[in-house]
Amino acid sequence: MNTRLNPRLPASSSGWHRRQWLTVMAVAALIVTLPLAAEAAGPVNLNNQGVALQGHDPVAYFVAGRPVKGTPEFSAKSNGALYWFSSAANLQAFQADPERYEPQYGGYCAYGVAQGAKPDIDPNAFAIVDGKLYLNLSPGVQKRWQADIPGHITQATKNWMTLKDQ
């Protein structure tokens, strides 16, 4: 039985030729997409609207103890990121001391940064440690991060020195 995976391949192509063709196509796809991914991942994790924390209010993590969606009505820029706030009071608190409220590692996943990558975050997977906001990719990843918070923070801080500009 001669099954053809791609009609553009000659009928006499063996499985080896198909695998070779698929490998070439996979490598080509990586060559095309890696520069785009690198360009998209800047020093601050921004959504498609250019907003940090997926639009969540950074001050609310400290004040309400949970993520709260902000609005464009209350917004401020800091260190190349646009932040949205849920109230004028939270906006004012942020403007008075942005470093206190900005997430660590540009708002990327803390565990991921400790592993040498810059994954996105789930705004619900967060922790405040020593007065600093850390976010993770998911609740499952956060559990791994919680297994050694001091060790992961130390490693992430080292890795961030090179990752932040990639």
Word description of this protein:
The protein has a domain at 103-166. It contains 7 helices and 4 strands; from the N terminus they run H-H-E-E-H-H-H-E-E-H-H. The termini are far apart. It is an alpha+beta fold and 166 residues long. Strands 1-2 form a two-stranded antiparallel sheet. A two-stranded antiparallel sheet has the order 3-4. The chain has helices at residues 15-40, 58-63, 88-96, 98-101, 110-114, 139-146, 149-163, and strands at residues 71-78, 81-85, 122-129, 132-136. A hairpin with a 2-residue loop joins strand 1 (71-78) and strand 2.
Features:
two-stranded antiparallel sheet; single chain; disordered N terminus; 166 residues; globular; alpha+beta; two-stranded antiparallel ribbon; 7 helices
